[in-house]
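Dear colleague,

As promised, here are the two records you asked about, laid out in our usual form so they can be pasted straight into your sheet.

NAME FIELD: protein one
SEQUENCE, THEN STRUCTURE:
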Amino acid sequence: MHEEELSDSDSEASSVDDHLVDPSSINLDETFFSQTFHGQTIASQKDADVCMQDEVSEHYGPEDENAITIEDAEQMNQILTQVSDYDRMIKEVNVCNESLERRRKEMELLQQTQIDGFDVPYLLTQTEDVQQQVPCAEDDGGWEYVQNDCTEIKHNIQIIVSNGMQKTKRVLNEAEKLKRLEQEFKRKLFLNTHKTHLLLLIAYGSRINQTVNQSVTLYASELYELIGNSDIAMSEIVNLDFVQSITTHYTTVMKHTKNDPSVLRKRNTIASQFVSREVTSRKMLNVILLTLLRFLSVRARLVMNLDVVPKHPPPVKPVPKEKSQPTPPENFNCAPRYGDVPLTTTEILKRKPEIQKMFQLSQLDGAEDEVVSNKKARLEPAKPRKKPTTNQTIKTRDRQSTTNEIPSLPHQPSSTSNESAKKTEQTHRIPELDTWIECYLEQERRWTVVEAGLGCTDCLDLVIDRILAPPLYAFAWEADGTLVDVSPRYRWRNEQLALRNRVDAKWLQKTLAPYRPRVLDEAYLQEKFEFRQLKLRAPRPTTIAQCKNHPSYCLHRHLQKFQAIYPPDAPPLGFVQGEPLYARECVHTLHSREVWLRHAKVIRHYEQPYKVVRTKLKRQPADLELFGYWQTEEYIPPEPVNGIVPRNAYGNIEIFKECMIPKGTVHLKHYGLSYICRKLGIDYAVAVVGFGVHAGGNHPIFDGIVICKEHQDRLLEAWQRHQDEAAQKKIEKKQTVVLKNWVKLVKGLLVRRKLKHKYNFEGM
């Protein structure tokens, strides 16, 4: 039995020996070793190596140890290492190919979604060369691909693909750039000139108002003599009859002789005119009446319509090109004719040279030929002559004013267009009236307009007809020097045009802030109510274009992003082309929760947003909820707990208004308090007082800190000690620097002295 097993093992060993090859005879450059190994891994290769080693160890017993040498084993290990490295490289290449294929598919998908990526000629070629499947007549079970025969003649086709996704930017040349810069400079120059002129006129009105106040005390005796012999019934309460009686008596006493607008520039003008009882200008007539009214304790104010230079530059009209008129064909009778009318048979015959020679023969008697009269064969229809513009200008001026102090000269047409342009620029319409008076009636509780030239009160419409319409800046000066903008009382007829030509409202409000009245009394509130009532007297707009930016009316289509109409069931005042017309008072500005918090307001609970819009954020577009003032309530700041100041989500405290300071805390704005608080262990929060804009983005503005009141005294004492120590250290540091500089100077002098004595330098 044992012999049989030995014989079997010998036979198996002999069979293995038949398949083994000498390692030195293996060629690694053959195609066998260049195959790709897609399914193999490093682990499987190692398992194969282990199995091969096990087989070798099984087939080669200890008696055959000399059959494989050490060099053969090392060469075999080297081969297996190269095979594993090759497998790893193949796997890396396959991964790279897969990533490239995936990237190529993404690019193809992207090109399919974009119109610009289409290759139009290639697509047309593909559609024209489509192969159609036609069933074969011989074999019904199969299909044969047959190319579609093109029976029509192919023509050259031009395809224009419009790229509507990209906007072509217009490239400006140097001339257009210079023209735009010039226009921008001219626009800014006109705006700055407009503002400067407005400031000068405001100062001029304040000077006149101050002169009137001084005249009340300086010329009290003359004013008393002016009304001494009158029948004016004095009353404790100022009413319309009292003001009317003063105005009537004044117009009978004072006489207007001539018009001299520069009379107010001279000194002692009012005194001389009091004595002579004659005024030299309509403005002076109203100024003296204002002085008299203030002398009688009537609340009267000086109103001036400031004629400011225009804010916008005048439009440049293009120079009309001279059209060359075609010369009519020469006629034999020297008479002009229409170019479109065909020639008659007689005219054609007369144009022949033979016929012309016959007519050009001189007379037989030697007398001169008669001159042919220039008679028109066919007369053109007479054009209607334009009427002279003199009568038209006179009529329009008569409509605007009934009493013209300056006569209007007849207009003579100029010979050249340049002269007419110069005359047009020089002519400037001088208003008939630019100064008048407003008096407050205590009994009627309203303001009335008084004008000495007209000699009446409540003459609002008459004054509007005699001033520059619409007035841009109508300002009123009180006796105490305050300034009130009363332009809405006089511009209600064309308020939209007046607002367009005025300066920016924010700039004007900031300019008039020093002159604004400190206390708003009942007269001021009644005046505001009157302004709103006057807006209703203006004619309603009839077109959609007139409704845009209208100060009194509004359409729903013209609402801005943060505007809405409240109440939602507001009754329309009318309809414009089928759209409801609402009052401007119904248009309200909405804000988000964060913006209302800056106004010390919070949204009430269970309030739904009145309007939802899209935010301006491009990275995270979302819906923004907007609320109106009727959905808000006052902000109640939280109180500190255990000495801890309440904070927001960012660790700060928002103090946009004084009422937002929490109860029991104090807002300190001293420099360097946060360092002292950290040193003493006092809890504090940095105060955010607003938001600023820089580089196109908002950023918070910090000012001071907020702490509890019980730590205020201790903190301020420590801060004062710290400031004193810092000042003392600064002085000591400065003294140290000064001492070091003196030491350097003294050492330098000693060195200089030693060198001088040692080397005998004469120049030192």
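NAME FIELD: protein two
SEQUENCE, THEN STRUCTURE:
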Amino acid sequence: MKLFATVLMVKILVKMLQIFKSGGTSLPGKLATRIYPNVLSVISRRIKIVMVTGTNGKTTTVRMIAEILEKHDFSFITNKSGANLQSGITTTLLNAMKLDGRFQEEYALLEIDEAAFKTVCPLLKPDFVVVTNFFRDQLDRFGELYTTLSGVKTGIKNSEETVLILNGDDSFCSSIGKDLPNKAYYYGTSSILSDDNDYGVTDGKYCIYCKSKYSYHHRTYGHLGNFYCPECGYRRPELVVSLSEPPIMSDTVTKIRLSVARQDHEQTLEGVIPVPGKYNVYNAVAAMTFSLAAGMELEKSMEAISEFEIGFGRMEDIAIGNKTLRIVLVKNAIGFNQVLDLFCSNNKPYPVAMIINDLIADGTDVSWLWDVDFEKLTVVQDSIPAFYASGIRGEDMMIRLKYAGLNMRKVSLNKDYIMLVDKGLKATPDNGYFYVFPTYTALMGFRKLLVKKFGIKKFWK
């Protein structure tokens, strides 16, 4: 009776919040947990659970896995709107549950914030956990990388049946499989991702076990790559699924070739990811490794990845007339550097806006902007018609661009989103792109404007 009442309350609240133009992702779950504190533990064995966590790439990896499940005719529920804290996950599960306490779907595919993982994982005891990477994120919220990593290990510790899918190129991720008894599948790269040797911010320079400096057979970006410690011998584990050749990228797609280590042979797979970016290569390999671990058909899974739809604000393209708004969420220095790499590699006359907020969901400490290599924009600035700074901390963004050496006659502060869109599209050539790089709350506010002005779909649909 208690579960029935809790499920009913959540369903009613979600519907009401959506009617009143809110996503309805957190409040119902918060109230449900107060009424029924152990509700997640009660319902966890009623559905197969896949959890995806890590600093960057969670949403896109979830989207790719969702496409794989759909391709294999599995029904599933997912927190598509990106509500990835305990309250949002509780809302997602209870809103999907039938009033009799059963799930109609076979899988629950859940993105989970790495800071919330420590609490949620022991409650749900998932069948699979996919870990994308660990980078320095919101300093005021997460603290040190080692604290975040420790929380993830603690979350998994009492779930020995959980199968792990880990980024083998990440020395932090790999240590999870080394330190825990769970069955683990490692993915990564057997090849460099590009000829660019600018690795950006490096968080994991030193061995997690002996504190000696890592060496690399090859690196991709940040601290990712084929690492090894020359002192204690800790090294990248054997990869089960790996990128075997450098990817071929365009403005809109990435061609990849994967190698899969089978028990008695090596399988080769080729496919196309419908988004550009080095980081999206890792997301695709992670999704394919989940497919292998779950016993699914890999050829069919590769087809699925080529058909997936990007999540809102994650390299999201919105056509407006004969021009395209491309929105790319930025959360931390390493991710922003990858986005700038992609933008600069185009070297096309496209304007760009950077919308920086400092609310709790963004991280209130914006000093991370000084770890972003905006200096690389000076190489392409002659071809860029305009740079825009916006958001609550738009002035900070202006200062950062000034110290990066940009021509400030091309840089303007535009806090009014309507004016920003109008100016940006006006500066965009026909059939070109207007790039917008917002932090999380800036993305939500900016998208609300686009819903109102251009009628695009709301984020929870």
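A couple of things worth noting about protein two: The CA atoms of residues 248 and 255 lie 5 Å apart. Residues 2-19 form the longest helix (18 residues).

Best,
R.
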